[in-house]
């Protein structure tokens, strides 16, 4: 029975939306004889733009009688003084009503469709008595925050008497100001008394920065006694008509505040009314911000008199009454210049949902989806970073026309997807400093602006690419990108980044990847080949994934392109450090100039020499070879000293050969010609290689590199030395000269050998 009872209740009571998407002013205050212009907003749908709009008056029993509608109907009471106009482009319709009287005060509805079943919004209209006499009372009106001047008449005989003004309250008539200088503390600094002179027969009191509490009945009095001359004044304070703002859930709005010339040097603020008296600061020019608006609010000064406040990612709790104003301390104060706003947030929004928070890992990437009005395909798109400065600031990072901030080159790209109402911003190579708030903007409809919060968390990027590489011009470069199993069904791509876009390049799959642990053949490698490499190929390359039109993760790698060094033997090392090939080539050139043959036959032979005095001896051993290594490094760094040494040696050789040409036998080994005295073979026991413990015949034979002619000469010489009995001969001056020359050759040979052995070190 209970389910049946509930079904009957639902049939009797129609389902009514708890909050209508129609929005208009809650209160309208007009002085009698004036006119009202009442604007109502509706959701921007095709049906709403073309359906009937109406304005009706609510009766005592809840019935709403139509007074005017968009289909041409006008009631008798409104004939000649009212009209209704629809503005479909702005999703609003406006009722203009003239010649209002106090009889027009009451409750009304503006709505769409049929009165009893359509969407509507309640409006309260209050028409007050206009300025002028009302019996024995003069009526004055003043705008909240404005200035009013009230005149009090008196008779000529009372011109010299005291003048005063009091306000009627529950406690009697309380003095506000008098001609002796007394001023009520509630009016301190806001009220003054002005006496024109005895010929004017009036005095005035002026109230500045009018407050709501100033409204009421005042009495102008002449003289001290209670029977003095008096006149009554009624002051009405009109609340400022609030400016209406209509925003969609997840959309954005802009408060345009203009406060006049009196606030040029004051701090500006926007506050939200929490009750009739309290207004909590949302943002001000002194740097204060409500934490609930962090990352989604900006205050932008226009000039010293006006400013605008932008709020994005609207929430339903943002709806309410706001005041923008100015005061020296940036806080709302009684009497400070203000401008009232009423914000409505439509929960039946047409703005698609999008993540307000995105997360990425250090070194990885994020893809942010930004909505825009679908009809504005050709609008300019932006992406900016919100910064927590004094007023808030959003610094543009990338634009759809190709502009990218310099510090984000190679990291940031904006992809447009015409027709679906979104564009995508990709930021890769993430660092901890990238965390923060970012805004999606267009130069079109400002209601479609949105904000996203980027969080950078711990973790590893899903994609794996090589580190930045160096390629050689004319060679082939292959860039692999490893994708994990979760992207098996996604589209993979390589693209080359530019400040306009990231152009997709042809790539090829290479089967399963072994870069991931606990993963099967669903993990893949997709490679990009540059064949041959040219200088134009230098730049940033991205590998990434897509799922339909939605972009996913990306990874970036920079390819540096170098010219191929002449004489280089290794051109396949694209990761070589810049300049490495050049160093190796230079070393080889130096070696070829220093040593014609790889090694001389007489390597590491010990030589003993004596000078003309017969007292000095020198030995060449392994320690002297180490010393020569240091010399070879010096010779390698510069060829000039080596050339001087060779030149001096050539002179010495020429002199010695001229003196002893008759007794010298010549032996030719390869292209190197040298003079050796036959007596040297006779004294082989003293000077032969077999007596030098540091020498080796194997090394000597290896140095010749298998040449037959040199091997035969070496074998013949060794047999001769073994067959003859070594003789101890007295050294002549010729022999000493030959020994000196041989020592010179040994030193030169050791230098050349060290150059070859030190090649790797160079």
From TrEMBL:
One of its GO terms (molecular function) is polymeric immunoglobulin receptor activity. InterPro entries: CD300_family_receptors, Ig-like_dom, Ig-like_dom_sf, Ig-like_fold, Ig_sub, Ig_V-set. Residues 719-735 have a biased composition (Basic and acidic residues). It comes from the Eukaryota. Its main location: membrane. It is a single-pass type I membrane protein. GO terms for biological process: detection of chemical stimulus involved in sensory perception of bitter taste; epidermal growth factor receptor signaling pathway; immunoglobulin transcytosis in epithelial cells mediated by polymeric immunoglobulin receptor; receptor clustering; signal transduction. It is found in: Cell membrane; Secreted. Gene3D superfamilies: Immunoglobulins. Residues 14-120, 461-560 form the Ig-like domain. The chain crosses the membrane at residues 634-656. Keywords: Cell membrane, Disulfide bond, Glycoprotein, Immunoglobulin domain, Membrane, Secreted, Signal, Transmembrane, Transmembrane helix. CDD domains: IgV_pIgR_like. SUPFAM superfamilies: Immunoglobulin. Residues 707-735 are annotated as: Disordered. Residues 1-18 form the signal peptide. GO terms for cellular component: plasma membrane; receptor complex; secretory IgA immunoglobulin complex. Through its N-linked glycans ensures anchoring of secretory IgA (sIgA) molecules to mucus lining the epithelial surface to neutralize extracellular pathogens. On its own (free form) may act as a non-specific microbial scavenger to prevent pathogen interaction with epithelial cells. Mediates selective transcytosis of polymeric IgA and IgM across mucosal epithelial cells. Binds polymeric IgA and IgM at the basolateral surface of epithelial cells. The complex is then transported across the cell to be secreted at the apical surface. During this process, a cleavage occurs that separates the extracellular (known as the secretory component) from the transmembrane segment. Interacts (mainly via CDR1-like domain) with dimeric IgA. Interacts (mainly via CDR2-like domain) with pentameric IgM. This is Polymeric immunoglobulin receptor. It comes from Canis lupus familiaris (Dog).
């Amino acid at each position: 029975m209970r389910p049946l009872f509930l079904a009957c209740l639902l049939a009797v009571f129609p389902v009514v939306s708890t909050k209508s998407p129609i929005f208009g002013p809650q209160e309208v205050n007009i002085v009698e004889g004036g006119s009202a212009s009442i604007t109502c907003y509706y959701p921007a749908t095709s049906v709403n733009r073309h359906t009937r709009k109406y304005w009706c008056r609510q009766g005592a029993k809840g019935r709403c009688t139509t007074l005017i509608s968009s289909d041409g109907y006008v009631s008798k009471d409104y004939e000649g003084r009212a009209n209704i106009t629809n503005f479909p482009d702005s999703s609003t319709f406006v009722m203009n009503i003239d010649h209002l009287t106090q009889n027009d005060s009451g409750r009304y509805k503006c709505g769409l469709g049929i009165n009893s079943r359509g969407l509507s919004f309640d409006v309260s209209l209050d028409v007050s008595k206009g300025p002028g006499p009302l019996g024995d009372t003069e009526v004055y009106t003043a705008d909240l925050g404005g200035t009013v001047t009230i005149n009090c008449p008196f008779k000529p005989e009372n011109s010299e008497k005291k003048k005063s003004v009091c306000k009627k309250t529950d406690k009697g008539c309380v003095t506000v100001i008098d001609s002796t200088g007394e001023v009520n503390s509630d009016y301190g600094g806001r009220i003054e008394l002005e006496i024109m002179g005895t010929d004017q027969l009036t005095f005035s009191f002026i109230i500045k920065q009018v407050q709501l509490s100033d409204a009421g009945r005042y009495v102008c009095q002449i003289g001290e006694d209670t029977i003095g001359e008096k006149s009554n004044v009624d002051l009405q304070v009109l609340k400022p008509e609030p400016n209406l703002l209509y925003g969609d859930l997840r959309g954005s709005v802009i408060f345009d505040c203009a406060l006049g010339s009196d606030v040029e040097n004051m701090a500006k603020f926007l506050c939200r009314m929490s009750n009739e008296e309290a207004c909590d600061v949302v943002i001000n020019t002194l740097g204060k911000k409500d934490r609930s608006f962090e990352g989604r609010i900006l205050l932008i000064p226009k000039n010293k008199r006006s400013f605008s406040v932008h709020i994005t990612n609207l929430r339903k709790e943002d709806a309410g009454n706001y005041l923008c104003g100015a005061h020296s301390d940036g806080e709302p104060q009684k009497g400070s210049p203000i401008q009232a706003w009423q914000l409505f947030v439509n929960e039946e929004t047409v703005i698609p949902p999008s993540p307000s928070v995105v997360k990425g890992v250090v070194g990885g990437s994020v893809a942010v989806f930004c909505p825009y009005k679908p009809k504005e395909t050709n609008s300019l798109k932006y992406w900016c970073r919100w910064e927590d400065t004094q007023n808030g600031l959003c610094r543009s990072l990338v634009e759809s026309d190709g502009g990218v901030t310099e510090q984000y080159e190679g990291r940031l790209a904006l992809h447009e997807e015409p027709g679906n109402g979104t564009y995508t911003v990709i930021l890769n190579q993430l660092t901890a400093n990238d965390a923060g708030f970012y805004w999606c903007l267009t130069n079109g409809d400002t209601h479609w602006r949105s904000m996203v919060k980027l969080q950078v968390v711990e973790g590893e990027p899903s994609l794996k690419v090589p580190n930045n590489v160096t390629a050689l011009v004319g060679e082939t470069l292959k860039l692999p990108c490893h994708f994990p199993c979760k992207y098996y069904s996604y589209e993979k791509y390589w693209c080359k980044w530019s400040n306009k876009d990231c152009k997709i390049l042809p790539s090829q799959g290479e089967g399963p990847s072994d870069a991931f642990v606990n993963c099967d053949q669903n993990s893949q490698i997709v490679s990009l080949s540059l064949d041959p490499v040219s200088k134009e190929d230098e730049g940033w390359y991205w590998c990434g994934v897509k799922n339909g039109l939605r972009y996913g993760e990306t990874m970036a790698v920079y390819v540096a392109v170098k010219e191929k060094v002449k004489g280089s033997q290794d051109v396949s090392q694209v990761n070589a450090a810049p300049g490495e090939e050049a160093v190796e080539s230079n070393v080889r050139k130096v070696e070829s100039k220093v040593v014609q043959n790889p090694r001389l036959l007489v390597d590491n032979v010990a030589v003993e020499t004596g000078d003309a005095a017969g007292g000095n001896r020198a030995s060449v051993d392994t320690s002297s070879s180490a010393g020569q290594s240091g010399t070879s490094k010096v010779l390698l760094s510069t060829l000039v000293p080596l050339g001087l040494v060779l030149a001096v040696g050539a002179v010495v050789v020429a002199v010695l050969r001229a003196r002893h040409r008759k007794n010298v036998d010549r032996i030719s080994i390869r292209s190197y010609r040298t003079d050796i005295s036959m007596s040297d073979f006779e004294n082989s026991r003293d000077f032969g290689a077999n007596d030098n413990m540091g020498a080796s015949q194997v090394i000597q034979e290896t140095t010749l590199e298998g040449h037959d002619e040199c091997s035969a000469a070496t074998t013949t010489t060794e047999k001769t030395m073994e067959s003859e009995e070594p003789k101890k001969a007295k050294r002549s001056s010729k022999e000493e000269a030959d020994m000196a020359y041989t020592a010179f050759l040994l030193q030169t040979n050791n230098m050349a050998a060290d150059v070859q052995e030190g090649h790797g070190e160079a």
